[in-house]
Design a protein that fits this description.
The chain contains eight helices and seven strands. Strands 3-4-2-5-1-6-7 form a seven-stranded mixed β-sheet.
């Protein structure tokens, strides 16, 4: 960030690359869906442009990176930092699913991030707090299919079903608020560039947008429409170098 905001800590929200289900719009929670070849290319291009020394996401400024346990997120994390400067190895938080062939290609084992952790430049952790929304019986369905099925069961007479209001948002809120507390605990006292303070979160479309709402202290049902493309990067920060003024960084100059 230029000028007076250049040293303010940032939180980078990185959505995993394209999968077959992101193309079709199917709800993808706990299902382990691999990146498409185009999804891999998306992430590689994002990494080449934005990740690395002196770039927007500079390993020298990252204090922590949290990653969803889903394969598509861990593979994305590995591609973002592959062949970049090495640093301290990370740790694992929470339960992680079994590895797949796609993981092996970027050195991701069945636990944590495996060899990928060697290329992140800073500490990393896999955490269930960033697992995608648990869609339950609606896993793999389209919004239109869910609404049609509910209509057939004579549900939602007053309004259409909405994941933000009807998808157990209180559970998602609780785990995201816990993660936000961890992020602010790291960034508090580093609001003016005293030490490295940037955080990277690699996860999924719904959970990252939910994180942005909670960062701004809005309830999840608050009608704040946001989009985050596969392989895309969003940025949160603070106004006036003040930990009590969390903000959504709508745009910034590229270093």
């Amino acid at each position: 960030m230029p000028g007076k905001d250049a040293s303010t800590p940032r939180v980078f929200l990185v959505r995993h690359g394209e999968t077959a289900w992101t193309l079709s719009g199917r709800f993808t929670g706990r299902s382990e869906i691999s990146l498409t070849p185009h999804g891999t290319t998306q992430v590689q291009r994002t990494a080449a442009l934005l990740f690395g020394p002196g770039k927007l996401v500079d390993p020298e400024r990252i204090v922590k990176m949290w990653v969803s346990p889903r394969v598509r997120a861990r593979v994305t994390a590995g591609l973002l930092f592959k062949d970049r400067e090495t640093g301290r190895k990370g740790e694992e938080e929470g339960k992680v699913g079994e590895g797949k062939k796609e993981e092996e290609e970027v050195g991701v084992g069945g636990k944590g991030l495996g060899k990928v952790g060697e290329g992140l430049g800073e500490e990393w952790a896999v955490t269930e707090e960033l697992a995608e929304w648990d869609y339950g019986l609606y896993e793999g369905l389209l919004t239109a299919e869910i609404r049609r099925g509910r209509k057939e069961r004579v549900l939602d007479a007053d309004r259409a079903w909405d994941i933000w209001k009807d998808g157990s948002p209180e559970q998602v809120t609780a785990r995201l608020d816990g993660l936000i507390a961890k992020v602010r605990g790291l960034q508090r006292g580093r609001m003016n560039g005293e030490e490295k303070a940037d955080v990277v979160l690699v996860a999924h479309g719904h959970i990252l947008r939910a994180f942005a709402k909670r960062w701004l202290e809005y309830p999840l049902e608050f009608p704040l429409s946001m989009m985050l493309e596969p392989g895309g990067v969003g940025i949160l920060s603070y106004q006036h170098h003040n930990i009590e003024e969390p903000a959504f960084l709508l745009g910034m100059g590229i270093p």
